[in-house]
């Protein structure tokens, strides 16, 4: 469990990046920190592994105030993935993945064997092991970044806009992969994004931040959609512009299917079970196009 | 052109290479001295400038001060420094020691700015995100320096050493002004004897030595270019500028080939 208790962060230049934040993050869930640029997402995330220290308040991991833990030891026990993978350009993929185990003094051959397994875990070909980061595509580098973060088998995985630099298709693929990994490996994931759709796609819990590092709302995606806490949240998730509002079209007589359209009338998907009668209380799955 | 042919003839005249030949010969002894002075001066300069440059490059502290300070050092006329030092030191020690020390200090002062600049600008050229990510994975500051910053900036560090060495090789000539050895002795005696072959021969030897050492450094720079970072290291001082502008190496495109 990760807990923020009355956390405030003011940078030396006077910028108030986070203002009195309380958040509880349950173990083995994905919590997404979402908000516009400069709203303090990165600052919040980096307080968990002491890359940033709070000005006041506490950050607790499993009940221990991280301020009392040696930063180097703490960081080795928490996985961190950043936007461009943050790989070491002068080291081969396999050595990049083994970074933390090697720092911890694991024997080279054992670390290498484990790295190769991790490449499998994140869906990368073992043939890439001896390449250098720049020989890989952005999406592949991102997967290596995830493998590296997993290498020390941490309970916590911090991800800062990890899929920001890849194209939408790869991004979708990586999101699916992350969900799969999370449920398979039972990690507590804290994920930063400014993409609200990505937040909806991944989150068990969403933390919506507004400029000035103030929490606007915390809740499950369904809660946030159903009850935006205020106008800011409604506007941020696009509810005010009707972006999240979908309507059912009359059943297509030829195919017997029901098409869902968005507020502008553009098709958004199909009702999965077209035999279910709409409106009888069962909530049909809406398959996004 | 005859002048050059005669000078080369002088260089290759076996009589000038015979051990025990009349001072300032044989040539190989002066060559060895020249290299020895260069080596000692650059070694001492590196022992001072590299740790300082690493400290500045890693922490970003004291950068402004050092830039203006080394700028001032570069403007010092080495010959003036040499005469000043031998004079001052001459009051407190025997003149041979004073002359040797003065020469070494003057040469060390000459080499420090380039080596320092190579070290800190090398470290500064390392992508901040790479360093941040190394720190976030749990490297200590020393590990970041040794395992990330230095390997990634090695070509620039070697580049700084390279220009320091070249400056010193060209300047060791002044050692002969205070009675020390080196190839400068050959030129000085040539001037005394009005022997143009000797003057030009000595100058050619120094040039050849500089080119040779420069070539060795070019090879070292190429070898120290980290494989993942790509292109072979640039040559000479322009490398500092060009590599500083290089794209962060962490951003790659599919199937991008290593040049
Ligand atoms: N090291 C720093 N020194 C001073 N101010 C900083 C520092 N890092 C961040 N800030 C400021 O703190 C605020 C929050 O920054 P932060 O990086 O946490 O935002 P973010 O939500 O991650 O933004 P983005 O989506 O652009 O990454 C911003 O106003 C930023 O300018
Ligand atoms: Mg950020």
Automatic annotation (TrEMBL), chain A:
Coiled-coil intervals: none
Family stated for the protein in its record: Belongs to the ABC transporter superfamily.
A GO MF label: ATP binding
Region feature (Disordered): 270-289
SMART domains named among the record's database cross-references: AAA (SM00382)
Keyword Transport applies: yes
InterPro entries: AAA+_ATPase, ABC_transporter-like_ATP-bd, ABC_transporter-like_CS, P-loop_NTPase
Keywords, ordered alphabetically: ATP-binding, Nucleotide-binding, Transport
Domain ABC transporter: 2-237
Record carries keyword Nucleus: no
The protein, known as: ATP-binding cassette domain-containing protein
Pfam family, one: ABC_tran
Taxonomic lineage: Bacteria, Bacillati, Actinomycetota, Actinomycetes, Micrococcales
Organism superkingdom: Bacteria
Xref: Gene3D superfamilies: P-loop containing nucleotide triphosphate hydrolases
Automatic annotation (TrEMBL), chain B:
Localization annotation: Cell membrane; Membrane
Signal peptide: none
PROSITE patterns noted in UniProt: ABC_TM1 (PS50928)
Annotated keywords: Membrane, Transmembrane, Transmembrane helix, Transport
Membrane topology term: Multi-pass membrane protein
Pfam family, one: BPD_transp_1
Comp. bias intervals (Polar residues): 245-259
TM annotation in the entry: 36-56, 76-94, 100-123, 168-187, 199-220
Region (Disordered): 229-259
Keyword Membrane attributed: yes
Gene3D superfamilies: MetI-like
InterPro entries assigned: ABC_transp_perm/SBD, MetI-like, MetI-like_sf
Segments forming domain ABC transmembrane type-1: 31-217
Family recorded in the similarity comment: Belongs to the binding-protein-dependent transport system permease family.
PANTHER family: GLYCINE BETAINE/L-PROLINE TRANSPORT SYSTEM PERMEASE PROTEIN PROW, POSSIBLE OSMOPROTECTANT (GLYCINE BETAINE_CARNITINE_CHOLINE_L-PROLINE) TRANSPORT INTEGRAL MEMBRANE PROTEIN ABC TRANSPORTER PROZ
Protein name: ABC transporter permease
Organism listed in the record: Agromyces allii
Lineage: Bacteria, Bacillati, Actinomycetota, Actinomycetes, Micrococcales
């Amino acid at each position: 469990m990760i807990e923020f208790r009355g956390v405030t962060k003011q940078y030396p230049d006077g910028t108030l990046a986070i203002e009195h934040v309380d958040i509880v993050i349950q173990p083995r869930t994905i919590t997404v920190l979402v908000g516009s640029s400069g709203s303090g997402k990165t600052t919040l995330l980096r307080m968990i592994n002491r890359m940033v220290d709070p000005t006041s308040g506490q950050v607790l991991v499993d009940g221990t105030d991280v301020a009392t833990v040696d930063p180097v030891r703490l960081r080795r026990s928490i996985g961190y993935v950043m936007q461009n993978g943050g790989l070491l350009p002068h080291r081969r993929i396999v050595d990049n993945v083994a970074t933390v185990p090697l720092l911890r003094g694991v024997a080279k051959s054992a670390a290498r064997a484990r790295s190769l397994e991790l490449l499998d875990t994140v869906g990368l070909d073992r043939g890439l092991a001896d390449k250098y980061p720049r020989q890989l595509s952005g999406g592949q580098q991102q997967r290596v970044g995830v493998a590296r973060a997993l290498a020390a088998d941490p309970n916590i995985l911090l991800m800062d806009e990890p899929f920001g630099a890849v194209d939408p298709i790869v991004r979708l693929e990586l999101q699916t992969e992350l969900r799969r990994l999370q449920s398979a490996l039972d990690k507590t994931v804290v994920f930063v994004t400014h993409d609200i759709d990505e937040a909806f796609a991944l989150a068990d819990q969403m933390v919506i931040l507004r400029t000035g590092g103030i929490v606007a709302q915390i809740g499950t995606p369904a809660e946030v959609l159903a009850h935006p806490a205020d106008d800011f949240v409604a506007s941020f998730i696009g509810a005010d512009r009707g972006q999240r509002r979908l309507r059912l079209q009359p059943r297509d007589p030829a195919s017997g299917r029901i098409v869902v359209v968005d507020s502008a009338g553009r098709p958004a998907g199909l009702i999965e079970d077209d035999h279910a009668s709409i409106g009888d209380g069962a909530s049909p799955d809406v398959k996004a196009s | 052109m005859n002048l050059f042919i005669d000078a080369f003839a002088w260089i290759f005249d076996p009589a000038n290479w015979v051990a025990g030949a009349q001072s300032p010969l044989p040539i190989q002894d002066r060559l060895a001295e020249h290299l020895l002075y260069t080596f000692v001066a650059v070694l001492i300069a590196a022992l001072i400038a590299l740790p300082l440059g690493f400290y500045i490059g890693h922490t970003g502290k004291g950068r402004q001060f050092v830039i203006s300070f080394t700028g001032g050092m570069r403007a010092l006329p080495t010959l003036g420094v040499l005469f000043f030092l031998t004079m001052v030191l001459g009051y407190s020690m025997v003149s041979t020691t004073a002359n040797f020390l003065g020469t070494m200090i003057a040469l060390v002062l000459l080499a420090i700015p380039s080596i320092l600049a190579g070290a800190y600008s090398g470290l500064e050229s390392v992508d901040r995100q790479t360093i941040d990510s190394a720190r976030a994975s749990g490297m200590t500051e020393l590990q970041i320096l040794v395992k990330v910053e230095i390997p990634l900036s090695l070509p620039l560090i070697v580049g700084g050493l390279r220009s320091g060495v070249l400056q010193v090789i060209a300047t060791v000539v002044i050692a002969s002004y205070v009675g020390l050895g080196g190839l400068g002795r050959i030129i000085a005696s040539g001037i005394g004897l009005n022997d143009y072959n000797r003057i030009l021969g000595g100058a050619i030897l120094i040039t050849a030595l500089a080119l040779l050492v420069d070539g060795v450094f070019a090879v070292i720079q190429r070898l120290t270019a980290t494989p993942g970072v790509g292109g072979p290291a640039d040559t000479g001082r322009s490398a500092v500028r060009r590599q500083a502008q290089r794209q962060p190496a962490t951003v790659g495109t599919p199937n991008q080939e290593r040049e």
